[in-house]
Predict the structure.
Amino acid sequence: MSERVALVTGAAAGMGRAIALRLARDGMAVGVLGRTYETCRAVADEITASGGRALALQANIADRGQVTAAVTSLREAFGPVTVLVNNAAIVDFVPFREITDAQWDEMFEVNLKGTFIVTQVALPDMEAAGWGRIVNITSCGAELGSELLVHYTASKGGMVTFTRSLARELGPLGITVNTVMPGSIMETVMSEQWKDTFPIPVATLEQVNPVRRTGVPDDIATACAWIVSEETGYITGQNIGVNGGRVML
């Protein structure tokens, strides 16, 4: 994978950071993209200090112009982008009756439209190479649902069908498209911010999960590293749950 160039969105912290570090460790050059340049640069510096190749990139993924500029910078630095991990997302715990139009629109603007824009901008490099790996990070809530997260889970559910349809369209071009569905991932900025708001207490999740623990960002990074490998060309359109066996709650 040493000739591959990967773009990871939402890569400044949490799962995105873990994914970026893992792909760099596997030999890829990595574009570390997020809303804030300084936090992305910290991750990129961490990669280069370990002997890897990385470039910090700043963009709002819902802004096509910013995304295009970021992808162009990455391409000019390292070459064609043939691996994409759409990890960037927002979340907000709100009772359904209280969700405003603005909150609903923002959730879909970032989580779904942002994924669409980044994928469309990065796609030409994969088409030219006749090879590509796209991984969309969704949520177990896209299948199970979750109270207080109707707008979030709806946006993530949209990513699932986006993935399945895109996999059918891009498969003949040598490009695979899959989702990773995290479940109960702790030790992220998002989980720390909202853990006291979770409808299900963390202790309960630990008790009901078959593996008797919650997940950590490296669990997601491991799954992504496998999906984007050279050997997974026959795996596409799949929703891969990384959730400790969680099938309910």
Notes: The mean pLDDT is 92. The CA atoms of residues 98 and 133 lie 38 Å apart.
